[in-house]
Each structure stands twice: as C-alpha cells, then as structure tokens.
Amino acid sequence: MNDYTTTIYCFLDDYLQVSRSKDESKRKINDAELLTTVLLAARYFRGNYISACLYMESHHGMQHIDKSHFNRRLHGLDYILSCIFFALGNTLKELNTSSKYLIDTFPVAICKNIRIPRSRFLKDEIYRGFNASKKEYFYGFKVQVITTEDGVPIDYLVVAGSLHDSTSFQMMNIDLPEGSQLFADSAYTIYEVEDLYREAEKVELLVDRKSNSKRMDTPTEAFLKKHYRKRIETTFSQVTEKFPKKIHAVTLKGFLIKILLFLLVTVFENLI
User: Fold this and answer.
1) Strand pairing partners for 109?
2) For residue 5, is pLDDT > 60?
3) What residues have CB less than 8 Å from 229, skipping those under 6 apart?
4) Confidence class of residue 22 from pLDDT cuts 50, 70 and 90?
5) What positions does the domain Transposase DDE occupy (predicted)?
6) DSSP secondary structure letters along 77-98
C-alpha cells in the first residue's frame, strides 16, 4: 500500500507540474496529496475520505485538513481527475495494437428503492432504471464504459438510469482510431449507426445479434463476439467490488466524482 501511494503521488505531482502552474504556497496540503488521498479512498477505503486522510496523516506525514475544506478543494479539482482519466485513455488507445475495444453499461443506484421519495439529489422518473442481470429496478445512473481488449477503461459516460444502452451510445462521443473493432451486446443494435461508423469513422461496431436479427452472424462471428465481451464483465466486477453498500455523498457532484474515482483506480490497478 505504501509503494502504491508513493507511485500514485509521484505520477500526480509530475502530471500537475507539467499541465498547470504550482499550488498556492500557503496551502496545508498540495493538490497531488489531496488527489492521492481520494484515489486511496476509492481503492482501499470504499470511498471514505476520512479514513484515507487518517492513513495519509499517520503514514505519510500529511497535515490535517478540515473535512469541509477538503471537499471544497476536491470539487474544484474534479476537472483534473477527468483530464487524467482521458489522457490515460488516449495513451492506452495509442498502445492498443490489437485495435479491439469493448462497450457496455453497469448501474449505480443512488439509494434503495424504498428511499426514492426522500432522495435529495434526484427527483425525476427518468432515473428509475432496470438491471436486467439482477432482474430488479434501481434508482440512479447507468455508467457506459469503453475498455480495451484487456478490460482497461478508456472512456465513460454517466446517464440517467432509464436510458436504453443504444440511446446513451448515440450520446457518447466515440473517438477510436481508424480500423478499430468495438464489441457490444445486443442492446446496441442500431443498423444505421453501425453503417455510419463503418463508413465515416472506419470503426466496426460488432454487436452480439439476437435470434431474430436481420443481420445474422456466422457461428464463428457469434463465438468471437461472446468471447471478447466476457472481459468487460470482469472489469465491471473490479469497479463495483470497491463500492460501499451505499455511496455516501452530500452533493450530486460529489457522487459523480466518486464514480470517476472508482473507474480511475481501476485503470491504475491495470497499469501499476
């Protein structure tokens, strides 16, 4: 854990020095320390910032910082976390010689169904979705993720829980290298979009076909699609196993930041 902390801190410190000006000298802790702390919270403490702060104070000499001040600082640095995630994603795309990618969604409930009327963040019916794998409804978001063939996340989009996968796919800015293959399940069946990506973007969308599909696969094609798609389920397990029973956040922005943190630490787990 100490080695992981040191590695993450050095990476963040170097990234911040290259990408922007230095921190204000009067701050108790610098931005690299703060971001290291929240990443540790996501990986080891199920998103609990207080526990991560106590660890950093006792093992790495970080100065104590007030909880509200810590959260305000973090909310002001959310764009840096996004920049780091997408910068790593672009690098991974350049290194991905197989040009194979996977896409799927997983649900993130903001509260239990019985507490929906008391939800402070969300009020609209659009956030009530259905989790097909568990055969149950949930209230919250769907996280659409694109990964490499090895299951490393490179892009994501958070949408309302009720939106169909094909709808959220059209909302996402898919930026893959020419000649890429993107494997998806049958929920992404939109023939016009498949043709558009093939002709305009030179990206082949390989959708797992339903039994009544107008474009049936050969047995070999069907096998390959199922084979490659299995890896993304493992990635989702890696991400969600870090979740607490309930993701605690005081604001909606704080909730979304935690989703990004859980994705980002999954990237680091596969790289370090």
Assistant:
1) 140
2) yes
3) 102, 104, 183, 184, 185, 208
4) low
5) 101-240
6) THHHHHHHHHHHHHHHHHH-TT
N-terminal to C-terminal alpha carbon distance within the chain: 12
**Tokens 């903001």 label which residue?**
110
Note whether 217 and 239 are within 8 A (CB): no
Q: How far apart are CA 139 and CA 142, in angstroms?
A: 10
Look up tokens 């610098």; give the residue.
30
pLDDT tens-digit readout, 120-170? 888 889 999 999 888 899 999 999 999 999 999 999 999 999 999 999 999
β strands within the chain, DSSP E: 100-111, 128-131, 136-148, 153-160, 181-184, 204-207
From the list 149, 180, 184, 151, the residue with the least C-alpha distance to 170 is: 184
